[in-house]
User: Which sequence fits this backbone?
């Protein structure tokens, strides 16, 4: 004969409280894992952008200037990709392999950039962090001691907003 579990009415509130606590711990754990993954993606993206900027400067690329109507990272992304672009036999601009093509697709936005001598090329025009916020390019050391670098404004933690800088991430 199989014994059945009998729960009395006085034990129901304890059972429901236990179920709610287990569900709460599972939700909290899932949220923490998502936050950890987003921070990891943010740090990797910032470090990759900083290395790409150092490569660009090492090979003689001029300091990108801010373009009217575009966010601050657009100027760097356009200059960097122009530096690696080549025309094919049909006269169309194509991106040669470079570090930025390895950034996660869900963190980048594609668009069109104008090329020297006319024409346009499909290229990366914006990069976001793991939380979905835009990454900024800081190019003026007079305005920010971390510049030139990339920065992102992280979500609030304990009521405080925090900036994270790519120049700090690759040390």
Assistant:
């Amino acid at each position: 004969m199989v014994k059945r579990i009998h729960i009395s009415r006085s034990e129901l509130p304890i059972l429901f409280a236990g179920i709610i606590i287990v569900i709460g711990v599972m939700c909290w754990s899932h949220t923490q894992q998502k936050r950890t993954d987003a921070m990891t993606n943010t740090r990797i993206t910032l470090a990759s952008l900083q290395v790409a900027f150092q490569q660009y400067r090492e090979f003689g690329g001029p300091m990108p200037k801010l373009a009217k109507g575009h966010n601050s990272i657009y100027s760097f992304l356009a200059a960097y990709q122009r530096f690696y672009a080549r025309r094919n036999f049909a006269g169309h601009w194509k991106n040669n392999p470079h570090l930025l093509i390895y950034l996660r697709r869900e963190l980048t936005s594609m668009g069109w950039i104008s090329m020297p001598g006319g024409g346009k090329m499909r290229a990366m025009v914006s990069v976001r962090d793991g939380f979905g916020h835009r990454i900024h390019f800081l190019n003026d050391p007079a305005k920010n001691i971390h510049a030139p670098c990339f920065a992102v404004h992280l979500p609030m933690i304990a009521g405080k907003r925090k900036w994270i800088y790519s120049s700090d991430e690759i040390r």
